[in-house]
Amino acid sequence: MIYLETERLILRSWQTADQAPLARLNADPEVMRYFPSPLSREESDALMNRAMAKQEADGVCFAPIEEKLTGKFLGFVGLSRPKYNKPLPFDPCIEIGWRLDRSAWGKGYASEAAQAWLQYGFDVLDLEEIVSFTTVTNQPSRRVMERIGMVHNPADDFLHPALEEGHPLEAHVLYRLKRSTWRDTSVR
After folding, report:
1. Which of 30, 65, 80, 149 is buried deepest, with most CB atoms within 10 A?
2. Euclidean distance between CA atoms 113 and 170, whole angstroms
3. How far is CA 173 from CA 91, 110, 115, in A?
């Protein structure tokens, strides 16, 4: 069971009760604007089932975050080993990613939870590097990546293999963070 805690958040394993709030999150067109489309309830449930299977198989996955004070489901943040039908140009890797409810935007929750996951990835899992990627136009996520110390090199940019050629979201940026850099710059 994943259980990390920050000043304001609890990062935990998936529970059956997360299905409905996750479905609302994944159905929100504004939350999903940097993804090919919002998800149906069935697609959202399948996403949660895949996350739970990844947790079992890999030991990590994108996992729910909740507000410590209220217990409110805010979305998910975590580490994951990406799996697509075609490999990413930088495979194998562990990525850090997030998707938060609009009510949680602008409060620093993504960065706070991501910092806890970075510490877990580098100190507990002993990872050498953690990556993050998103479509070029996703400035909010790119700002989180920069805020948590990740570095973008335009030479690493790529076309996402899961999107069809010419798709408006196909062009992606890659951010990286080495353990040595994180240790030198992290405020813990």
Report:
1. 65
2. 27
3. 15, 18, 20
Q: What is the DSSP letter of 121?
A: I
Cα separation, 161 vs 126, whole angstroms? 28
* Cis bond upstream, residue 168 (ω within 30): no
Where residue 137 falls (left for φ over 0; alpha for ψ -120 to 50; beta otherwise) is alpha
In tens, the pLDDT along 132-167 reads 999 999 999 999 999 999 999 999 999 999 999 999
> Does pTM surpass 0.85?
yes
Burial class (CB in 10 A: 0-12, 13-18, 19+), 133: buried
Where would I find the H helices in 62-188? 109-119, 139-147, 179-185
| E strands in the chain | 3-5, 9-12, 62-67, 73-80, 95-100, 129-135, 151-152, 158-159, 171-178
